[in-house]
Amino acid sequence: MSSHRKSYGQRAADHSNPAAQLLLHTIERKKSNLAVSVDLTKTSDFLKVIDVVGPYVCLIKTHIDILEDFTPDVIERLKLLSAKHDFVVFEDRKFADIGNTVALQYSSGVHKIASWSHITNAHPVPGPSVITGLASVGLPLGRGLLLLAQMSTEGSLATGSYTDDAVRMARAHREFVIGFIAQRRMDHVGTSPSSLPDGVEDFIILTPGVSLEMSGDSMGQQYRTPEKVILENGCDVIIVGRGIYGKGTGDALDVGCVALQAEKYRTEGWNAYLKRIGSTGPTS
Amino acid sequence: MSSHRKSYGQRAADHSNPAAQLLLHTIERKKSNLAVSVDLTKTSDFLKVIDVVGPYVCLIKTHIDILEDFTPDVIERLKLLSAKHDFVVFEDRKFADIGNTVALQYSSGVHKIASWSHITNAHPVPGPSVITGLASVGLPLGRGLLLLAQMSTEGSLATGSYTDDAVRMARAHREFVIGFIAQRRMDHVGTSPSSLPDGVEDFIILTPGVSLEMSGDSMGQQYRTPEKVILENGCDVIIVGRGIYGKGTGDALDVGCVALQAEKYRTEGWNAYLKRIGSTGPTS
Predict the structure, then answer these.
(1) Fewer beta carbons within 10 angstroms: which end of chain A, N or C?
(2) Over the stretch A126-171, which tens digit does the pLDDT of each residue have?
(3) Number of other CB atoms surrounding residue B184 within 10 Å
(4) Within a domain: residue B48?
(5) Are the beta carbons of A125 and B154 separated by less than 8 Å?
(6) How far is the C-alpha of A40 from the C-alpha of A276, rounded, in Å?
(7) Quick one: pLDDT at residue A198?
């Protein structure tokens, strides 16, 4: 049976990477495959949105390098929120350099990403050294890596043989690469069903560009619905941004409305998952 | 005549982008096509190495996000050194996200890269929106962008049609994309000589992985000599790192030795260039 027909809880048992286990258990526990991408530049807005959406998500996706008033205290408060609301943290750093450099970028600098982000991601374009460089820092800390096998932007070059190579690279480093940022499942990509039976590998698929309303922005981003992404394309986690918190700044943040939107996406994503694994009827 | 057969000074006149003009004029003025990549994690080491190699380089390449004790004061001191020694600054950020995100990463966060780095770079993998997103911030400031058309690491996916697409993407945004990080010239890549006569476009090629001694590191980096890079492959700027400053930390930094190494690379790179443009005899 293909991995994505199993429950998240069953799949957690098949993973040896601690970050993959944590994510799958969190999804099961919170009945949420919703991740919220918090792309805000002020710490106060950033922490406020996370506190509001926290109860509804399995994961918070950050761009720590856009916070203009970042201090190490932000990380302490993010950790507290992660414990309070029980979510996994994913710094969407998109590492894309040679091994020696990404190891420094991951461990050092003012942001010290490896010390607090359970999961991070990388582009496979530099070749396998981007994985081994990050693994040299992240594996001892129990971290997990997602590779960008595809992108949701118009004219992306992560297609065809690029995607195949990304999956092969991940397959060769399964102890650290726990899944992909992609638009669909990657089972059997870069190999054949006969040489790799169903269920032997289980890459977790996180999918950005999810929205119930918009069809695109002015900067090349393209959107799809939770049902399409989870049910049709077999992805595991939907990543939603401004579709949930709007502008998300200062007085413009309507806490009740944001919570309502988060719950709406959580329900949509979870019901699509229940249909996928053939469970009896959706929950509300 | 292909652009790389002209002098750097002549080429400056053909560029309309201010960052490209600045770089080409600086190379001509200082008789140096040497860039030093300063990959150090302590501010004191970082600034000290830059002060030592500054007289010999046209450009300093930074990874500002690995400085563990970064404060805004580092940027002020970097700007002073840039003025003192007359070099261009290139933050090697390798942006690789959707347009909206890279615009925030470039302009905001604690590092505010666009405010001080004359040149930065991006992977073309997200598609054209990575360029337009960065251009929305960088063009009004007179900045320039390099695309990563190739990488010097083993197993890199930036080859074949990926490289062709990168060059086509650059060609469609010539007002902001001033050149490439690549291993060789990109003239006529992704097009035909007949549809694009020699000398119509002039992308500046900056090439990492240059060393007089080493053949590789343990993390997949591969090396070539300045002569091979400038003369055989037609690249314009050689990027050298630890080949010049060694470990570069604290007491381990032998100032005289580092200056000597920098001068050696500058001479090698410049003489290769003189041979290329057919100038009479090398300078020492």
Answers:
(1) C
(2) 999 999 999 999 999 999 999 999 998 899 999 999 999 999 999 9
(3) 17
(4) yes
(5) no
(6) 33
(7) 76
Residue A144 resides in a domain: yes
Note whether residue A79 is domain-resident: yes
In a domain, A282, yes or no: no
Domain count, chain A: 1
CB–CB contact A155 B219 (8 Å): no
Nearest residue on chain A to B221, alpha-carbon basis? A98
Q: Which residue has the tokens 């992240």?
A: A138
Report pLDDT digits (tens) over B75-103: 999 999 999 999 999 999 999 999 999 99
- pLDDT grade for A109, boundaries at 50, 70 and 90: very high
**3-state class (DSSP) for residue B162:** helix
CATH assignment at residue A234: 3.20.20.70
The helix/strand/coil state of A206 is strand
Cα A234 → chain centroid: 14
For residue A156, give the nearest of B94, B127, B155 by CB distance.
B127
Residues of chain A positioned with their CB less than 8 A from the CB of B166? 157
Residues of A forming the active site? 92, 94, 97
* pTM given for the model: 0.94
| Residue A82 structural domain | 3-277
> Considering only CB atoms, which chain B residues are within 8 Å of A108?
41, 66-68
> How close B11 comes to chain A (CA, Å)?
30
Average pLDDT over residues B45-50: 97
- Sign of the torsion angle spanned by Cα atoms A128, A116, A156, B19: negative
